[in-house]
Specification:
The strands form eight sheets. A nine-stranded antiparallel sheet has the order 11-12-13-14-30-24-23-18-21. A six-stranded antiparallel sheet has the order 17-28-25-22-19-20, with no helix packed on it. With 341 residues, it is mainly β. It has two helices and 30 strands. The structure holds alpha-D-quinovopyranose. One of its GO terms (cellular component) is cytoplasm. GO terms for molecular function: aldose 1-epimerase activity; carbohydrate binding. Keywords: Carbohydrate metabolism, Isomerase. It is an enzyme of class 5 (isomerase).
């Protein structure tokens, strides 16, 4: 009917990577809110949602040019895997994984989930539209055993919900703990930093980490610490309590929700997940040469909220196991609702 807006997916050229053409998908819902992603790294390049006055602006950190994602990206918007976070000495069982952070392994190693071009196709359901990205991580990839088939589907709904669904199958026992590494800034086009945002999480415990940012194995209570976000807390207050900021795994409890709110724009992000934990990375002290919205990347420009199982789980039996086996399909999900208050 004339005038009726419809869920729409547009696929367009984005760049070239090692002679492969890279495409961007632009998903627009009936409210004209937009979700953008590319098949390189299954990177979320933009989420454009209304503020309290209806002004639609981007609320995630990203680059203007594809080359910047390849050259020097701190995993902006990317799917991270096979295993997110650090693994001490890159050692699991009899396997030696790539040591790509000093003597340790981080974010699946080199040239892997976040840096490859994924197969992709548009998927449409009644009230949501999405893109399914698929990748085969071959046996031996960065030292991991087993051929791993992974599909990450991003749906964009008419309710301004980004749904992320991950499925995986392996032909040998291996380990798997993916995340998405989107950095949020609800002010719109990063016109302000995130210090006035409030963060609230259903998390009674956090994982203590050592000087290499590896969990010590101790899950400490958040009560009476800087890590207590059980009630909404301004990031400014949290950073005052802990000036070195947060690069911290929190164990989620109860309904496993996380809320980020920006009182200035009125935008709120409500996340819900079936994963055990969220790593909060506050970008404290990140002063970089690359540009985000035409300005140098700087401290507190965004906040990454990475849902996953607790990091370095292979070395801590009390953390959820990330071992996966053949002949099963593993499924994980996180939903991100963008609304206003
Ligand atoms: C992850 O925990 C890590 C950080 O230490 C790192 O700097 C970032 O990814 C790029 O969140």
């Amino acid at each position: 009917m004339y005038g009726v807006k419809r869920l729409d997916a547009r696929k367009q050229h984005y760049g070239w990577y090692e002679e492969q053409e890279v495409f961007e998908y632009v998903l627009t819902n009936d409210r004209q809110a937009v979700f953008r992603c590319i098949d390189y790294g299954a990177v979320v390049t933009g989420i454009e949602v209304p503020d309290q006055f209806g002004k639609i602006e981007n609320v995630v950190l990203g680059f203007k040019q594809f080359e910047d994602y390849v050259n020097d990206s701190p995993y902006f918007g990317a799917v991270v895997g096979r295993v997110a976070g650090r693994i001490a000495d890159g050692a699991w069982s009899d396997y030696q994984l790539t040591k790509n952070e000093g003597q340790h392994h981080i974010h699946g190693g080199n040239h892997t989930f976040s840096q490859r071009v994924w197969e992709s196709r548009v998927v449409k359901e009644q009230d949501k539209i999405g893109v399914a990205f698929s990748l085969v991580s071959p046996d031996g990839d960065n030292g991991y055993p087993g051929n791993l088939h992974v599909t990450v589907t991003y749906f964009w709904t008419n309710e301004n919900v980004w749904e992320m669904l991950v499925t995986a199958e392996t032909d040998q026992v291996t380990i798997f703990n993916p995340t998405n590494h989107t950095y949020f800034n609800l002010s719109g086009h990063t016109k302000r930093d995130i210090l006035n945002h409030t963060l609230q999480m259903n998390a009674r415990n956090y994982a203590e980490i050592n000087e290499s940012k590896l969990p010590t194995g101790r899950l400490l209570p958040v009560a009476n610490t800087a890590f207590d976000f059980r009630k909404p807390k301004k990031m400014k207050t949290a950073i005052k309590e802990r000036p070195k900021g947060f690069d911290t795994p929190f164990k989620l409890s109860g309904d496993k929700t996380i809320q980020l709110h920006d009182p200035d724009s009125g935008r709120t992000l409500v996340m819900e997940t079936d994963r055990e934990a969220v790593v909060v990375f506050s970008t404290t002290g990140m002063e970089e040469d690359y540009l985000v919205d035409d300005e140098k990347m700087s401290s507190h420009r965004g906040i990454a909220l990475e849902t996953q199982e607790l990091p370095d789980a292979v070395n801590h039996s009390e953390f959820c196991s990330i071992v996966i086996e053949p002949e099963k399909t593993y499924r994980y999900w996180t939903k991100y609702l963008f609304t206003t208050q």
